[in-house]
Each structure stands twice: as C-alpha cells, then as structure tokens.
Design brief:
CATH superfamily of chain B: 2-enoyl-CoA Hydratase, Chain A, domain 1
CATH architecture of the largest domain in chain A: Alpha-Beta Complex
CATH class of the largest domain in chain A: Alpha Beta
Strand content of chain A: 15-25%
Shape of chain B: globular
Largest interface: A-B, 86 and 84 residues
Number of strands of chain A: 11
CATH topology of chain B: 2-enoyl-CoA Hydratase, Chain A, domain 1
Helix content of chain A: 25-40%
Number of domains of chain A: 2
Oligomer: heterotetramer
Number of strands of chain B: 9
Distance between the termini of chain A: 78 Å
Order of helices and strands of chain A: EEHHEEHEEHEHEHEEHHEHH
Structural class of chain A: alpha/beta
Number of domains of chain B: 1
Number of helices of chain A: 10
Shape of chain A: globular
Helix content of chain B: 25-40%
CATH architecture of chain B: Alpha-Beta Complex
Strand content of chain B: 15-25%
Structural class of chain B: alpha/beta
Bound molecules: zinc ion
CATH superfamily of the largest domain in chain A: 2-enoyl-CoA Hydratase, Chain A, domain 1
C-alpha cells in the first residue's frame, strides 16, 4: 500500500468540490478561501476539522517537522468483525486519508521552541485511539522526557477504538502513565482539544495538560450525547460539552480561535520550559547549604552578623 | 485453588454451570454478561465483609460529596491491613437506585484518589474491586469533570508508591472501570467481563442496533478468560459451580486466598521496582507492527518480579488474532460509514 | 494565680445545679446521670459540650495522659482592648475554667496505642485559637513526627482569637505547616470535630485529618451563621453546617456518637500507624534492587528463569 | 525606595497624604481601611499588567469551575518568569459583582493550588497578590468546603518547593487572604490592611455593634506598618503620596523594583533551605510565655537567609504590647460575655 507521508495533498480522489457549505451558518464557502482561512468560516467563525498535515503546517515553523515512528500500524488482536472486519476498515481508512493511523508525532520547532508534538486526525476512523495512537502518545511523552522538550498534543477523537477492545482501553493507562512521569520530571505538556475530543481520549491525555487549550465550540465530553440524552432521562444544559462549557467548569484554561492558536502556543512555550535538572548536592560552590552562606550573600548580609534573631 | 495453564480462548469454566454443547458461543458469552450483572452477585462491600475483618468504611472526597456508587476504607485480610476501594451496586432496587447502579460521579473517583493517597502515605497496599457499567454519563457528571477525574485517577494509580491489586468482580465497563483498575496484578472473577464499552453501546454504534449486543460482546472478547489471554488481566479466579451470586462466601474465600499470596509477594518488593514494573505492564499493552525503521525503546531483557509473578499465575500476552479466529461472528451487512464515537 | 492542672473539678463557683435542661428536647436531666452518659442527653441524644478533662478521661486509657507544655500562657501582643482588656479576659477565663488555655496536649495511650493528643475546650474563651493553641497543636504535631506516634486532635472552637489579631491568623499557617510535615513523613492524623468547629480552626488543622470524625449535630462551618445569613441574602439549606451536612458533602468520614467515639478511634489506630521509616538503600540484603532477586523469590520463580517475557 | 528602619507602631506614611495632626488615630487608621478598599485601587490584574510583560492568564480549578474572584497565570517581571495568583475585585459595580467583590469560593482556592503546583513543577517562583474581605461566606461556598480549601492551600504553600513572595495589596481579610499569603517574604503596600476578621465583623462580635468598626480596626493593629512591627509582614512598600488608586503605574513600578531584588535572592537559594526557613517563619509567629519547665524546641542560633533578608528589609518580631500602648482605645462598657465566634 503506497503511502506518501507526511504531507499528502488531501482530497485527490474525492470529486473536486470548489465550494463547501458551512454547517453552522449555511454560507457557501469557496474552498481555496476556506483553506487560506485555516478552515474557519469567514462568515460565522465555525471551525471545520483540520487534517493532520494542515494542523502541523499551521502550528510548526516551516519544514521543521521530523516525523517519528511513522511505520507503526495497527494489527487486529481480537479478530474483530462488526459490519466489516477491522482490517478492512483500517485499509479503507488508510486509502481514504493517506495516513497510516489516527495520530502522527514527531519533533519540530514552534516559534523557535523545539517541541515534541502529536496531532490526531479525525478523518482516520474518527480519530479513534487504538494501540498505535496510544503508543505514539507514550513515545512522544517518553521522548519529551528524555530530551527535556515540552510536549504538545492536539486531540481530535471519538474516543477509544472499539475494534481493539480492552487493548484500546489500556491505552488510557499507557498514556496517563507516560504523562505522569513527564510531569514528575518537570517537563511541561500542553493539551489542545479540538472538535471532537471525547470518550477515552478526553478521559486520559487530553484532560491532563499543564495547560489545556480548546478551539471554539469544539465538542469536548466524556459520554456520547446519545448516551447522555438517551439512556439517561435528563435535559442537557445549554452548550453542554462545548469548549466554552468546559472553560466555564474549570477544565480548560483558554478557548483560543484557530487563528490565534499558534501565537498562544508560542506565548506559553516561552514559559513552559522543562524544569532545570537539579544540580547534584555536592557540586560547585563548596560553601552552600546548612546555613553557611556563599560569599556574595554573606557580604550583603554582613551588617546583620551580630544581630540576634528575635523570637516571637 | 490450583494453578491453571494459560487460558485458551474458549471461555474457561472451572466446573461449567452451562453445558457448552447446549449453547452457541454467543449465548455462552451472553450468559457470562448476565452473570456478571446479576444483582445478587456479591459487590464490593459484601466481598470485603466476607473476606476481611475489622472493616472501616471511610467517606467523602474532601471536595464535593460522598458518592455511594464508590466505596472504600480499611480492612484486614488474614491480618494484613489494606485500603480497599470499589464500585458498589445494590442487591435490591432501592439500594441500586441509591448506589446509582454502581455508576460513579466524579466525586466517586476523587474519593478513590483520596484513599489511594492515604494508602501511599501509610505504606499500606491497595486492593480495588471493579464492578460498573461505566462512569455516570449524565450532565452533573460531565459538569464536574468525570473524564478529568478518570484520567487523574488512572495517572495517580500508575505512580502510586504502594502495591495495588485490582479485581474485576463483575462488570468492568470502560474508563469508569479502569479508573480504579490499574494494578501491579489484575485479577478477575470467572464470570466477570471487561470491555472498552458496554456491549449495548458497542452494538448501537457499530451495528446501529442495541439488539446486536450479544454479537458485540463476542466480538469484544469481554470474558475473563479472553481478557487473560490478551494479557489485560493476569489471572482468573474460579467461581463456585453455581456462580458467585449463589455462593458469595466461597467466592470471597477463593479470592482472599489469591490476594493473600499476591499481596505478600508485592509487599516484599522495593517500591521503585514495583513502579517500574507497573509502568512496563501498561506500557507494553497493545498490538501493532512497525513497518518503518526500528526505533524500539529499550526494554529490560529479564522480566521483573511482578511480570514473573503474572507469568507464574498463568497470564499471556501477544497478538491473538489467529487463536481468536473461531469466535468471529460472520460479517454483517456492509454499510461502510464507521460511526466511531466511543461512548464513555 | 493558683491553677490546679490538669483535672480540676468544674463548676465549683457556679450555683450547684442538680439538673440541666436539654436545649434540644427540653428534658430535665439529672446532672450525675448526664455525666455518666458522657454528657449526652438520655432522651434525645443531644451532645453537650465536654470539658477537656472529661474528654481526655473518656478517650484515653486510665491515667495514661502525660500533659506537655502545660505552662504555655497567652500574652497580649496587641495591647488589645474591646469591652475589657484581653489580659482581663484571659484571667477571667483561667479562673472560670481552671485551665490555662483553650487547648491541652500530651501523650497517652488509647486502647493500648500510644498517641499524641490535643484537646480543645470551648469553655476557655470559646475555644478560640491564639498563639498558645497554635503552638500546642504545632508541638503536638512535631512531637508526633519525632516520636512517630499517631496524632489526634479534638476540636471545639469558635475560630481564631480576635484579640491576638493576625498573630492568631498566623496560627493557621503554623499548624498547617506542622501537619504537612507530619503527613509527608507518613505519620497519621485523626481530626475529631465536636460542637462547634468553626472559623480558622476548621480552616486549618480540623479539616486536614487523614480521617475526619465528627460528633452528631456538631456545628461545623467556616463563616458564622450570622455572616452567612445576614450579610449575604441567601436562604441556608436544611442542616447547614451540621456534622451530617459535612458528611454529606464529603468532608467528614464518619459521624460518630460520643459513646462510640473511643472504639472508633481504637479501630482506626489499629490501621493508622506511622509508615515504617524506609530502610536505607544499602542496608541488609545485598542482592535487592535493580532487577536482582533476593533468595526466596528467586527460588519461587526459578521455573520461569528460561521463559522469555512476551511483548504485546 | 530607600530602606527604612523597623517601623514604629505609628502608622507609617512615606509622604503623608493626610496630615496626622488633623485626625485622631482612629480616623487615621480608618482612612487606611478606606484607601485599602478604594475600588479604584489597582487590583491583581491591573498591577500585573502594569508591572509585568507577556501576561498569560490561566483558568479553572480542574474540579468545578473558574472563579472570577481569583485570578492567576504566567507573566514576566523584568524578564523573570513567575506564576502570579491573586484575588480580583472590580473597579466598577458590574465587574465587582462579576468578581464577587474579590471573595472567592472554594474553586478559587483550588485554582490557586493548581497554579502553585504548576509553578513547583516548572521550577518557577510564585508571587501572590492579596486583596479580599475574606472568602465568600455563602451556602454554596460552605457546601463545597471553603474551609477545607483554605486549609489545603495554606498547607500546600508551606511546603511548595519553589520561592513564594506574597504582597498584601489591599484588604488582607482573614483566612481567605492567608490562603494565598504564605510566603518566604511577605510585603504589603503602605495602605494595605491585614486582619484576622474584618473590622465590621470584629466590632459586631466584640462590641456587639458594627458601628465600632473603627475601634476594632485600631485594636486589631491592621495597618501595614503595625503588621510589619508584628513580624507578620516583612516590608512595607510605600505608595505615591496621592495613594495607589491615584497612581497605579508608580505603585506598580515600586512594587516591581522590590520584587525583582527579592526574587533574585530567593531563586539563588537551595529549595530545602527555603522550605526550612519558610517553616520557621510561621513556626515562630505568636506571642506566649512559658511558666512551666522549659521544653523549648531547638532552633538554629543563626537566622537563615530568608530571615536575614527580612531583617535587612526592616522587619521585626516580638511582643509589642508596650510599644502598642499609645494606640489603646479606652475600655468600653464592661459587659462580660465574650462572643468568641470568629467569622471567617
Ligand atoms: Zn459559517
Ligand atoms: Zn435531649
């Protein structure tokens, strides 16, 4: 199966549409204009989903992306068949999208800041997380830790991939564990939630950013609205599971329009630098520690040397 | 209970309650689901009261409330102090409503986390009992961040500096189950099931009909035996012939016997080793190929003690597609419009 | 000022009442009977407040209490005068209560478990927390840490003592800091909240137990009901700031009737033992760590020595 | 701003805006309270925007909500990255209502804690800005555990492994202020006040009349200068003559100058030393005598660097009853029924 990676022009085998109708405001949008506007409706600001190549192109400095683990491919550990066998779905998804899996990760620079970045693509089986997505997130986190680079994950996913059963579920643990080690080591992680970020992806790495950003009106939630509204007899609040709802409830730091996302990330990366690795206790200045003052401070404080500490 | 060889993919039954030749595989698997959901099945508090002494239940998440769908506290297993945490369903309709059918809100997971941290602070091991259709999917649950609470709980357990044994006792439903099911060793009762989504949820999404729940249950390999073969659980604990619901005391006795041995092994280990092995346990899960240049992360050649313990206990890992062949349901109608929303 | 410590019979200079009217059910209770019933109404279960001596006598094993820091006495750092000068209030409180301050701490055993225990007495200026109460709590925590003993604090307080101004407020930090170190060291702490536990006491050590117990219907809250109901135009929910309300909202583990409190504590102390101090890395068994198995485990697992770990 | 000697108990005014001889001490103190409460006074976000660059506000407690009465995020002080956290009042009625008059709910303190942990994880110092009448005393606040959130935040700050400087900028009201005011060094703006309870609350309890608020304000020694003399704050930062509300930019400039020096000193210190000295800072606070046998905890003879820094900055500790004498209001009526409920 010939796959050109990472940036295959999209839509080659779709009928060549020139116009797209905005699902939010019904405006007919000229596709070239839409692409130029980062696939945001020029009339109402509706954010269309972005493919992985476009997302990387928008965010990273020009031609700095080095993909890692491009060769990872899903297997079919359960021999899963619903209305068609899982391997057939995978093949179809690969052919339709031109990518091998629902996530791509690698290293690159963003406003000059070198980062590890992982981007999901909803076009590949609804961005569902199976073993490969989990593995890529974990490898991205482990590499970020090893190389002490900030990690960015841009999520877009319907959740765990049912066709891999509990092995997909276990990717929640795999990714959370890797991010836990990253955080303990003081290496920052920014989660960017885009439409949609749901189910097991929201319930693992997407929720755990040191900073969580979200695109406007992105669907972000745990349970499917069908479940919430159907199984459970309950009226859902206005704006339920939107980025703005999540912001209001304290789970998202900022809702950032796509046009401002790159700048927002650059701004954050200026701060979110890996904590310096602590100097060994015995290093350098021999007079530090245990109440003994190093030279310059001692000089500064000399006038006080005779003064007794007063106790309350 | 005697050790058994690694399970084949046939659902394993110690003393089969349902003669296999009378039922199709689909019916056989579905019987497991029904047994796992049997309201008379002993739930966390029943099991703890049967297998442990000096049970002290603790309450509250110190943030918002006390979730009756999640219970926890302190107890003693043959003298060993542990922190227990588990989903709690009710045996009667009223209690089941009060317990929200074992579906926790975020405060349930936050209570669990509080108790995990207490266990760590005291240096006491944790045993969890997993039995939920999933976290509660309602508006209040979403508003207060049920996904966040699940992610945090998973992350906390991955790094918790004390041994953890997790037991899937009934329904292991999705992230709401895994949130308290990360362990050094993961057991399952024989009739327990474990899945990424309920069979009904899977059916309504992939088959577009809840009537296909039985097919979905088969396709997802949700039985304890299959989960053991996948390496997701380490050992199946056999239930009495009549099923756990008919013999809760004997079920608890068997479980306690297993837990005692495993806890003793784990407690003897340096915690740093446990943490590394727990990390590896989940790090290795999944099935994929790499058609690109090798970029393998270096892994230790020799399995760690918890791995060795799991192997000793009869677990296996690996890709089971071939073995799984016989269970494949025939492909249904070929509508190709993958509705890939996993629902909690 | 002659003060007999710690157990001065109470009420000597009050008119000798034989009967007390229950404020909850209006029953007239014979005092001797009331004392015998741990000052719980025999009719309705109303929990009267307990003096420090009675509380210690109920909880600790007979004659095991060794008071510490009995000599600590409040000063008047602000020169505070409201309707009378603070020193006069202190003197009056000492004379009326027979104790020097609103808290007493020491070591003792409870069901055979040696503990550090600090008990507040509402009779002394409303159990208010000034420098001495904060100091005693901190010393109790520091001693519990040094001697690796579980700590129990029984609170009964209107909050910080206004007459000591921000120095009283700073006791929140002093006590929380000491309890923080205790927790980090893995030494357990049980907080028992009795009527009332409010203001700065609730907002510091009383809230921070590894396990929080409360007596039935005890008033437990942060802001005074006058503030909550007066300043803020708001109807208060049923049972607001009661022990049961706190339980329902997740801040109390168990509401325990006084008659069961000692047993509850003994039960908890059997579990809440200080975490063993970790063995130094180089101690004892030379073969531990780094994947090398100590003797017995190696023997147990020997059959597996040749078996390869399978990877998923 | 030049260093000043340890403040006497007279409220200290760099360039007195109110001629002292025209006002009684009571009026003078009350003028401070009013200046501290002036709605036009620069609040946290205004100060941060004036003194810092690259301000990025972060939101949410990851548990329940985003409290507009508590703000925080990242910014740069002359190039130094810090995490800032502070109470936020509004300058107009509408914003003040939206900000709940700077009175946080529990989610405000939990947001603060989240940001403190972020600072620790990144190894970035924290600067807090304190300006609240107190935590919100309503039912929702109590239900969600405002006292617990205050206690946890105080405890977290006491052990936070990164430098903390706290600035009382306006009203330092009770536990709701202290919850974000634990620091290695604590500053106050000249017209800030700091108290265990609002003057009105104190008056209504101890004087049984809110009309006695001015007396209560005097009795509690709530001015910045008095708090410095008590050792509760380490340094008073002078405001421009016309007051901070009239000259926010100059106020911010003076504050930034102080913060820069102090942060540089603190960042250069090993964090273990900082933690020990922070612990000692609070451990020593209070005034008591010991009439019993000595059982003193051994304390280091030589003050640590943060202490020495504070001494250098002109702070003092100790019992000030004698010095405080002149400010004593006359004893009022002698009703002896101490209503000792402190109200948050
Ligand atoms: Zn549009
Ligand atoms: Zn009564």
């Amino acid at each position: 199966m010939p796959i050109k990676l990472p940036f295959r022009p999209r839509g080659r085998n779709l009928p060549p549409d020139l116009w797209t109708k905005c699902p939010a405001c019904a405006e007919m949008l000229y596709n070239k204009q839409l692409e130029k506007n980062l696939r945001v409706c020029t009339r109402c600001g509706h954010h269309f989903r972005l493919r992985v190549d476009a997302r990387l192109a928008q965010l990273l400095d020009h031609e700095t992306f080095e993909e890692r683990d491009a060769g990872l491919e899903s297997l079919d550990p359960l021999g899963f068949v619903d209305q068609k066998p899982y391997p057939e779905r995978l093949t179809a998804a690969r052919q339709a999208t031109g990518i091998r899996e629902a996530a791509m990760w690698g290293l690159g620079t963003l406003g000059g800041h070198r980062v590890a970045i992982c981007v999901m693509d909803f076009a590949f089986m609804g961005g569902s997380m199976g073993s490969v997505v989990g593995e890529k997130v974990a490898r991205a986190a482990e590499t970020a830790l090893a190389e002490r680079l900030p990690l960015i994950i841009v999520s877009s996913s319907g959740g765990a991939r049912m066709q891999e059963g509990t092995l997909a579920l276990m990717q929640l643990a795999k990714t959370c564990a890797a991010l836990g080690r990253l955080g303990e080591a003081g290496v920052p992680y920014i989660s960017v939630m885009t439409d949609p970020t749901t189910g097991g992806v929201f319930a693992s790495y997407a929720a755990l950013g040191d900073v969580n950003l979200a695109e406007p009106k992105a669907l972000i939630g745990f349970a499917g609205a069908r479940v919430s509204a159907g199984t459970i007899a309950e009226t859902l609040p206005e704006g339920f599971q939107s980025a703005e709802f999540l912001f209001q409830h304290g789970f998202v730091d900022r809702v950032v329009p796509r046009a401002a996302l790159r700048d927002a990330l650059v701004g954050l990366l200026a701060y979110l630098r890996p904590r310096p690795v602590p100097r060994p206790a015995t290093a350098g200045n021999g007079s530090a520690g245990n109440g003994r003052l190093p030279g310059p401070l001692a000089a500064l404080l000399d006038p006080l040397a005779g003064q007794e500490a007063r106790r309350g | 209970m005697a050790d058994r060889p690694p399970a084949a993919m046939q659902p394993e039954v110690e003393e089969p309650a349902i003669p296999a030749d009378e039922l199709t595989i689909r019916e056989q698997v579905w019987a497991r689901v029904q047994e796992a959901r049997n309201v008379k099945r002993p739930h966390t508090l029943e099991l703890v009261r049967l297998m442990a002494t000096d049970v002290v239940e603790l309450h509250g998440d110190r943030l918002f409330g006390d979730d009756p769908a999640m219970v926890g506290g302190l107890c003693r297993l043959d003298g060993r102090a542990i922190v227990f945490v588990g989903h709690q369903k009710g045996a009667e309709v009223e209690e089941n409503i009060a317990r929200n059918f074992g579906m926790p809100h975020p405060e349930g997971y936050r209570k669990a986390m509080r108790l995990f941290r207490l266990a760590e602070r005291l240096g006491v091991p944790v045993v969890t009992f997993v039995d939920t259709p999933g976290a509660y999917p309602g508006a209040a649950s979403e508003e207060r961040g049920v996904a966040e609470s699940i992610a945090r709980s998973i992350q906390l357990m991955c790094g918790l500096r004390t041994p953890i044994v997790s037991v899937i006792t009934g329904e292991g439903g999705s992230g709401g189950a895994l949130a308290i099911a990360v362990g050094d060793v993961v057991l399952a009762l024989e009739n327990a099931v474990y899945s990424v989504i309920t069979p009904e949820g899977c059916a309504s999404i992939l088959w577009r009909s809840p009537d296909a729940a039985q097919q979905a249950a088969v396709a997802m390999r949700i039985t304890a035996g299959e989960q053991q073969a996948l390496g997701v659980i380490d050992r199946v604990v056999g239930e009495p012939a009549e099923g756990a619901h008919a013999a809760p005391a004997e079920t608890a006795r068997r479980l306690r016997e297993q837990l005692a041995v495993i806890l003793d092994e784990l407690v003897a280990r340096p915690v740093e080793d446990l943490l590394d092995e727990r990390y590896e346990r989940y790090r290795r899960m999944g099935a994929f190929a790499d058609s690109g240049p090798p970029q393998a992360v270096v892994r230790p050649e020799r399995p760690g003690i918890a791995d060795r313990l799991r192997i000793l206990l009869g677990s296996g890992r690996g890709i089971l597609a071939a073995e799984l062949g016989p269970l494949r349901p025939g492909a249904a109608d070929e509508v190709d419009d993958p509705p890939l929303r996993e629902d909690g």
